[in-house]
Amino acid sequence: MKPRISSRIAAIAESATLAVDGKAKALKAAGRPVIGFGAGEPDFPTPDYIVDAAAAATRVVANHRYTPTPGLPELRAAIVEKTKRDSNLDITVDQVLITNGGKQAVYQAFATIIEDGDEVLLPSPYWTTYPECIKLAGGISVEVFADETQNYLVSVEQLEAARTPKTKAILFCSPSNPTGSVYSPEQVKAIGEWALKNNIWVISDEIYEHLLYDGAIAPSMPVVVPAIADTCIILNGVAKTYAMTGWRVGWMIGPKDVIKAATNLQSHLTSNVSNVSQRAALAAVSGDLSAVHAMGEAFNRRRKLIVDLLNEIPGFVCPTPQGAFYVYPSVKGALGKAIRGKVPTTSAELATILLDEVEVAAVPGEAFGPSGYLRFSYATSDADIVEGIGRIKALLTEG
């Protein structure tokens, strides 16, 4: 009998972060006092001026119709201006494609340049969706792991050791999901020059570009290595910066031929992005960054709080991230020890115990690479951080 599900789709794993968040929300809905650190989603409402722009857009009949697949011309032009303002990178409108959220941009980037059997270097820990998109495109993920002693940042030497004649691209993400680590300008330049020298494409995910702390900066790779612009695809969106995860607007920036090919794909996949969401995104990227900075101040306060609390837990070692809104402690020191009669040997087992015993949801390291780590999103309230991490500490110090 022929299989009911295609082998390509059957091979895809469910998003671990969404699975954890879904389980936490289901328990909450059942009345359980669950504290969830799973989803990478700001807990702030979308700023009012963006919502107002969307509300007004619903009354414009033109927004009720199909619009060009690459995106509203006004939004693409605004992203050209925004990219110059925020990254000092000069691009043109025909280098921009508006997508249904950042995930579609990730998928289309790989689908557009990867052939069957091409290898993609994937610095690890990595966002859980990257390897699945590579797999869907027919590519092979080659994980390059950097642990907490490297602040989760891979070196050029590690990348070179992983390179083969089949290496087609590298996925680069700074600030990083899941670790919050940020590559220095010198590191960005070194990786870009290495990729250029070896004719390797760079797919650069810049979705967390505005979430930076302690004076860190995250330059766009084509700015520090201009020659790589012809083999670099930049991914971005409004979700994280403007608390717009549900609006589903992202974009790709790249060479004109790549953007044209990705537009052809999108024309058959989804066509245009919701016009109301595009109008909201236009207001977001055209406006000032005052609301963004206010959210950033809250994230920074929470970042310091959660790092301090996690480092008080026996067996946890939590580096201080310089970007995004995640912490990624090593929990290897807490494994192999009895917790209410259970002895976790992996971070996945530990995460299950935390949810079952004290109703705290975190994502295990297995979702992002090797076992031995947990990801906590601090895009939640100070009170929940104190309560949730406090529950973990109490559990692991019993007896």
TrEMBL record:
Taxon lineage: unclassified sequences, metagenomes, ecological metagenomes
Name this protein carries in UniProt: Unannotated protein
Domain Aminotransferase class I/classII large residue range list: 33-392
Matching Pfam families: Aminotran_1_2
Cofactor(s) the protein needs: pyridoxal 5'-phosphate
Protein family membership: Belongs to the class-I pyridoxal-phosphate-dependent aminotransferase family.
GO function term, MF aspect, one: pyridoxal phosphate binding
Organism of provenance: freshwater metagenome
Protein's GO biological process: amino acid metabolic process
Keywords attached to this entry: Aminotransferase, Pyridoxal phosphate, Transferase
